[in-house]
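Design a sequence for this backbone.
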């Protein structure tokens, strides 16, 4: 397994070891000892799976209180995956990183607590998996608008398919401090 820091040092790209032969391939999607060795000590408590059509954009989501760290990867298709630092007081507050994740490149992205997360399906269908460090809490669910001009994220679509909830989120600059994560 290889682990790389991104421009946001806490957000990591993971390339699992893949063993291929004429039958197909094998890889470990999670091995706590290897991830701890790579500096990822998260305690995951919930796994999620979503199916999306091309052009669907999910995000930018976070929870406050009860923030979630996530380990995400694609089982089928390809996404443009984004993490945004929403830790108030952080030296990288408001900065984002975007990574192409696909069933072919088999990369994973680790997004720690304190970052909003979203992805856009760029293939016809996407089967997307993620491990979370906190249970889903509807009362804690929050988000940042996907097209926030202050973030200037270069999404691969100009008119994505959004949920009604995702259409309602505000720009990061309009979100009250108590609704963000405090940088420690």
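Sequence:
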């Amino acid at each position: 397994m290889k682990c790389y820091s991104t421009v946001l040092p806490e957000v990591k790209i993971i390339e699992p070891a893949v063993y291929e032969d004429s039958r197909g391939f094998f890889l470990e999607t999670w091995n706590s000892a290897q991830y701890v060795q790579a500096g990822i000590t998260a305690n995951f408590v919930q796994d999620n799976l979503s199916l999306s059509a091309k052009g669907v954009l999910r995000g930018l989501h976070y929870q406050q209180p009860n923030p979630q760290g996530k380990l995400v990867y694609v089982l089928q298709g390809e996404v443009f995956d984004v993490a945004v630092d929403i830790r108030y007081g952080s030296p990288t507050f408001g900065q984002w990183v975007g990574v192409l994740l696909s069933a072919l490149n088999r990369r994973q992205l680790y997004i720690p607590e304190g970052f909003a997360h979203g992805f856009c399906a760029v293939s016809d269908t996407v089967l997307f998996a993620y491990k979370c460090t906190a249970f889903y809490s509807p009362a804690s669910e929050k988000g940042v608008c996907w097209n926030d001009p202050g973030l200037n994220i270069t999404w691969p679509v100009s008119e994505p398919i959004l949920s009604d909830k995702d259409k309602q989120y505000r720009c990061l600059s309009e979100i009250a401090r108590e609704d963000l994560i405090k940088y420690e």
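Residues 32-37 form the longest helix (6 residues).
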